Structure formats: C-alpha cells, structure tokens
C-alpha cells in the first residue's frame, strides 16, 4: 500500500511505515490515517521509519504517541527509528522521547518487540 | 541582502486561505528569508517549525472557513525577525487561546498528550512569544527571533 507521502511494508514481526516526505500539518493527517488503518486491521506492532523526514511537527508526533498508547493497551506497540538530530530535538522538547521507543535502525526497532 | 546590510526595518504583509496546504509554501518562503537574513541552520529549522505550529493552530482553531484566511506580517531588520500570525476566530469558539490561558493549558499537558504541544514549542524555540486577542475576535500570535552573534551569520 502506498501513497505520495508513505509506504507500508510487511515484516514478520511488524508493519513498517516508511515516511517519504516531511511531516507538516498536511502530511501528519496522512500519517494518522495510515496508522489508524493499520490498527483497525488488527496490526499490533508498528514501526515508523523517519529516516527520510527533515521536518516534523507536534501533530505528527502526537499521532504516533496516541497510536502507541492504544497499541500498548493490547500488548502491542509503535516504535520509531531514523531520527535526524533536529527531529530528535523536537521529540525531546514535546516530551515524546520519554513515551515512544526510539531506535537508530530498523533492525534494532524490530528486535525490540 | 545580508544581516549587516539591513539597518532599516522592512515589513511584509500577506494573507493566505485557511488551508493546511499553504503552510509548507509559507514555511519555505520564511525559511529562505531567514537564511538570507543570516540566521543559522538550527534557527531556520526552529522558525519553520514554529510557522507550522502557529499557522496550523490559526487554521484549525481560529478560522471559520477556508475563506477566513490568516494574515501574516513579517518585520525584520539587522537585529531581529518578528512574525505575527492573525486569525479571525470562530463564531462559537472565539479566540482559541485567550490571553492568560496558556498557563491553564500548560498545567494539563503531559508528555503523552497527543495535542496542544505546538504553542509550547513556539514558546520554547522563539526569543519572545505573545498571544493577544485581536479586535476581530480572533487571536494574534507574535514571535520574535533575535540574531545571536555566536550562533547566527
């Protein structure tokens, strides 16, 4: 499944969301919809790849925080990886680094499930 | 145009429809202006992020329809870049963040809050943030970025 801003890959352990453009207000809505769709389809383990993202806003971060909270209620989780320094700083400023599990690589994110 | 050459204040004003699609072009424009003025890369990133947060709030919470529009005013000289974003408010909601309500909202925020972080990012990343109720019944958000000799230019 793909659209302009993201691609979804299947892995044995999780669904992987590759975000292919910056996550401003407009694209954040697409991310929220994509994650909601995966959760509605009973995906319990989701990894979001942010390695191609240069800008992110609080709406996009909030969408991932909300999804992680819902998934954890059913023993699932949402993990993220590939954050550039600016993105990591934004995650830190809104406190999301203490809520979401953040990894450097896809393999380490998948291994953490 | 460089920071050193710009001694008198210049003012740019424009209005865009209240549509999220316009935020990225506005970010790019103001980001390039900040670059020309001599701000460093990190500050340009912060300015672009704040534009996203403040404009999306003005569109989502302070605009009745896409035609309501948000007004942007940029004022810049050799010492600072000042950005004002004005919305017209909603009939029911009025100004979405009345003056003085920031503390009230702040007390409800936690790291796992899904919404409401934008205005606090603006507060943390700018040198000055003011939120005012405007005569139209909407909200004016004013942010200022001063040049820092150690970081900019």
The number of domains of chain B: 1
Helix content of chain B: 25-40%
Largest beta-sheet details of chain B: 5 strands, antiparallel
* CATH C-level label of chain B: Alpha Beta
- Second-tier CATH architecture of chain B: 2-Layer Sandwich
Number of domains of chain A: 1
Order of the strands making up the biggest sheet of chain B: 1-2-3-5-4
Envelope shape of chain B: globular
Report mean pLDDT of chain B, rounded to a whole number. 86
Q: End-to-end distance of chain B, in Å? A: 12 Å
| Strand content range of chain A | 15-25%
Task: Report the helical percentage of chain A.
Answer: 40-55%
What structural class do helix, strand and pairing data of chain A support?
A: alpha/beta
The coarse silhouette of chain A is globular
Give the oligomer, counting copies of the same chain as homo and different chains as hetero: heterodimer
Number of strands of chain B: 5
**Rg of chain A, please?**
12 Å
Q: Tell me how many strands of chain A there are.
A: 5
Largest interface: A-B, 23 and 26 residues
Task: Characterise the protein shown here.
The complex is a heterodimer of chains A (113) and B (153). Chain A is an alpha/beta fold and 113 residues long. Chain A has a single domain (6-111), classed as 2-Layer Sandwich (Transcription Regulator spoIIAA). Chain A has four helices and five strands. A five-stranded mixed beta sheet of chain A has the order 1-2-3-4-5. The longest helix of chain A has 16 residues, at 25-40. The model of chain A has no long low-confidence stretch (mean pLDDT 93). Chain B is of the alpha+beta class and 153 residues long. A five-stranded antiparallel beta sheet of chain B has the order 1-2-3-5-4, covered by helices on one side. Chain B is globular, with a radius of gyration of 15 Å. Chain B has four helices and five strands. Chain B has a single domain (10-146), classed as Histidine kinase-like ATPase, C-terminal domain (Heat Shock Protein 90, 2-Layer Sandwich), CATH 3.30.565.10. Chain B has helices at residues 23-37, 41-62, 101-108, 118-125, and strands at 10-16, 70-76, 80-86, 128-133, 139-146. The relative contact order of chain B is 0.20. The chains are: A alpha/beta (113), B alpha+beta (153). Chain A binds chain B through residues 22, 24-26, 29, 55, 57-59, 61-63, 65-66, 69, 86, 90, 93-96, 98-99, and chain B through 20-21, 23-24, 27, 42, 45, 48-49, 52-53, 55-56, 59, 110-115, 117-118, 120-121, 124-125.
